[in-house]
Specification:
Helix content: 10-25%
Number of strands: 15
Low-confidence stretches: 4-9, 15-23, 28-32
Distance between the termini: 85 Å
Number of helices: 1
Mean pLDDT: 86
Order of helices and strands: HEEEEEEEEEEEEEEE
Shape: globular
CATH topology of the largest domain: Immunoglobulin-like
CATH architecture of the largest domain: Sandwich
Amino acid sequence: MTAFLTAVLGVLLSLSLSGCGAAAPTRVAAQAADTQANAREDIQIVDSGWSVSDGNLTYGAIVRNPNADWRCERATLHVVGRDAEGRKVFGFLEDAEAVGAGSECALGDIACGDAADVAAVEFSVEVDESDWAPADGEPAPSYDLSSVERVPAPSGMVADELLVGTVTPDEDGPVWVTVIARDGAGAIVGGAAAYVEPEGAGKETRFQANCWLPRDGVASYKAYASPTEHNEG
């Protein structure tokens, strides 16, 4: 009888240890996934600025994804203007639809057409957890951009001036071009944006963006481009 009980206990112990051995890899994998997610850094605003011209407030921001192994499929920039008493004057949102692993993108445009009371502008950026994806070594698209010119707008345009240039993508698909303007000290004074549908990869395509930027104090313009699903209409 003692021998029988010993055998039964041995079998039960063996099954128990076997079950523990099967569950361990699952727990380890889950812990590894949690560690990887915790190691991912937040999207960063590395530079930003704004200015008012003829009552129109334009802004510009450079957003960076510091993660080498994660791409951001959508980031939302929040732009909030406040008066001298801290009261909210306006709120504006803009989405960056792709920020590749370890890369930067620019956002900028007109945010408010009646900015006389704005004394300060706050910038913040957020990414939903579902908008992160492993980079898997996939390189971000690249674009060749020409120098930007500021020119008078043709009659009938909504703005008096345009920022124009060309973009040449290395892959097919629509492109969002953002122009960032800086003053002589290198500070951002605003931006402008344009939706472009290039004829195809390697095809140089002209872009034009409505310009609401100040006429004085701008020392340089630089264009940035990123893929988009945004439709101009």
